[in-house]
Amino acid sequence: MAASGKKKESKTICTGNDELDKKMGGGIPTKTLTLIEGQPDSGKSVLCQHMIWGSLSNDLSVMAFTTENTVRSLITQMQSLSLDILDYFLLSRLQIAPLDAKRMNQTLHGTILPMITKCIQEGVDLVVIDSLTHYATQSSVDEVISFFQECKTFADRGLSVVCSAHTYAFDESSINRVGAMCDAHLRLHKETLGTRMVNILEVSKIRGAASRTGNIVSFDVEPGLGIKPIPFSKAKA
């Protein structure tokens, strides 16, 4: 049992893409709180899906809360990127919980936090929430800050938490406070480089990364391949 515990300590939240993980310092350490924020269609959900896949491949158990998909559509979407999670789902290594964020009385504290608490009780290693946008836009700044404070407490208790949201879900003051609170903060946006539009990942910080992080990564999302990092020189061509 002790040996197994030591083995889990060394694991990271990775994407399964060696080049991308290298830019992220070898992966995000476990027992941390991560925020992925960015523009619409900038790759937030795909990055979350890669983290789900990479973490499952790295022997972590995962709970995925999704406002973007049903169980079937998430599995199908990830399979189209060669991220086949079906076996993990059937073996209960991965749990998927679709959220109807627009239903009345669903709030960060009344809906999401109790679900995360249950994950701790069930021994889940990683919770991925994609996305918090609707909840955050319907909440006060104090409620948003309080939610992330609670998530940080969960991380201190051993649960890794990854949250995605659109940048517009936060005002400038709250995004700065939330970003400072998180152990890892990843920003995504789209940018025109030369004659093409590419996704840009800015690694604002990853506290405790095994190696130095790369500041900026440009990438495409290709069917059958998922995220494909591309050199800036090629992107500008």
Can you characterise this structure?
Helix content is 39%, strand content 27%. The protein starts with a helix and ends with a helix. The protein has 10 helices and 11 strands. A hairpin with a 2-residue loop joins strand 8 (184-193) and strand 9. Mean pLDDT is 89; it is low at 1-8. The protein has helices spanning 2-9, 18-23, 44-57, 71-79, 86-90, 108-121, 133-137, 141-156, 172-181, 232-236, and strands at residues 12-13, 28-29, 33-38, 62-66, 94-98, 126-130, 160-166, 184-193, 196-206, 216-222, 226-230. By secondary structure, the chain is of the alpha/beta class. A 9-stranded mixed beta sheet has the order 5-4-6-7-3-8-9-10-11, sandwiched between helices. A two-stranded antiparallel ribbon has the order 1-2. Helix 6 (108-121) runs parallel beside helix 8 (141-156) and helix 8 packs parallel to helix 9 (172-181). It is globular.
